[in-house]
Each structure stands twice: as structure tokens, then as C-alpha cells.
Amino acid sequence: MAARALAPAAALWAALTARRVARPPKLRPGVPVICVGNLTAGGTGKTPVVSALLEHFAERGIAAHALSRGYGGSLPGPVRVDPAAHTAAEVGDEPLLLAGFGPAWVARDRAAGAAAAEAAGARVIVLDDGFQNPDLAKDLSLLVVDAEAGFGNGRVIPAGPLREPVAAGLARADLVLLLGPAPARARVLAQWPQLRAVPLAEGSLQPLPTGMSWPGLRCLAFAGIGRPGKFFASLRATGAEVVATRAFPDHAAYSRAVVERLLREAAALGAQPVTTEKDAVRLPADLRPQVLTLPVRLALAERGALDAALGALAL
Hints:
The protein is α/β, with parallel strands linked by helices and 315 residues long. It contains twelve helices and 13 strands. The longest helix is centred in the N-terminal third of the chain and has 15 residues, at 7-21.
């Protein structure tokens, strides 16, 4: 009922988005631009995809630079992220995390950011988000879909979770990355068979082997990401005993008081506090060593479609 009542507002949102994405780009860089985006509000796993692309190019000796708006950060940019000097409050949590995989830039003006990255030696630019932003001409657009969340009720904001209609987004996508457990991926493909009209790669985000022995470890898990429950489930899947969970808003700024409270709660439970890599960079630096992280990485069932798309770039 509420979704139907909000349909006029959703139609206006969709029309404004369509008008925006139809604008000609401000800049066509002299190097390829790969856009990693999504159709829904909230997290879908874009950041691990961007980090996987940075690693892919680094292994081949190709200088790939990540470019982000720097959501949650105070610096308008363009600025190259320095993990030793910048904080998440300045550049945002995602760019700070990505800077561990390769050069990363933040810029509210994506065109200015791309120009700065190219001037600094980038041979390919990986745009973190920006699928609905027309500032840069894109050579390859990857659409990340969280299989467990899917497209919700299939309606556009504010009637649903979509930034734009599915059909409109798929028309601009070069490749769909459908991420999640196999049963969830099968459900999404059954509900949205039009996804198969675009080259498709399926996979999931898997915990990175770190030597940490998770089975049986008592944990207090906390996260401030798009879907905290997704992290809690991943931690349980390692065999850890999750005795308590604390969910915070996406990109939450962790004050010292909040983190100290979490540490006290964990101690009272005889548990180890655990969070995501993206949350960890937002913790006070001196308290960070007391919190474990569960890193996840992109794992594709079959890399053929993605490798073909990347191989077609003029590098």
C-alpha cells in the first residue's frame, strides 16, 4: 500500500535520474574508465570488486587507480589518499580501504578526479560507484547485484530500494556481477530473467584465509555497513560462535566512547570484538588493534565473462 502511494514520487525520481544519466560526460579521459556500480541504495559488495580489479591490474603491471566520491569524508578533492596521513573522516572509509590495494583518489567532481589520476600516471581508472553519475565517459560498466537482497520490491526510491528502474540500468551495463550464495543467485535469476540479457558473472564474497582460527571463537560482531546481517552471517559461516551482534548505520563514525563500550561488552561476554575491514578504518587508531577484522574477497564461479570484458579494454 505504501509503495503504491509513493509511486508518483518514485516516477519523478526515475525521470530525474534518466535525465541526469543522459547528459553528455564532462570528460573522456585518455585512459580506460571502469565503473563499478549498482542499482540499489545500500551496499552490494562494490568495494571488494574494486579491490579485486586493482589487484588484477597490479598483477599485470598496469597502474590502476581507484576513484571515489569519498562518501562520509570532509575533503572535496581531488586528493590522493594517504593511509598514513588521512582518516576516514577526511576521505571516507571505502577510499581509505582501497588505498591498501593501489592508488586511490577522492573527488566530489569525478572529472577533476580522473584528470588528476591520469596526470599521476594511471593507465586505467576504476570508478567506485558512479553508475548514475554522467561526469565521466565509461569504457566498461560493471553492475554489482547482491543476490540475497536482489532488487527488493522492484520499485524506485522512495517506493523501493532502486536508484533507477532495472531495465534502464541493464541497458547501460556491460556486465552483471551477481554475488551471493548459489540458492540466492538462482532465485534472483528466476525473478529477473532479463539479467541474462547482459553478460553475467556469478560469485560471492568469501573470507580471506589469514591464519586466524575462527571455529569456536566467541565473538561480539559489530558493523556499520549497508547490510550488517550479511557480515554477521559470514562470520558465523567461518565456524565462529557469535554471542552478540551490534548493528550501526552505514558509514557510522565510531567515537572513542562507543568503541570502549563495545570492548567492555565483549570482555563481559568473554568474547572477541570483530568487525569488517571497512568498519575497522573508522575506529580510533589506538583501539583498532583490540578488534579483529574479517576480510572478504571476490570469488567468481567462472572468470570468463569478466576476463573477456577486461581484455577488450585498450590498455
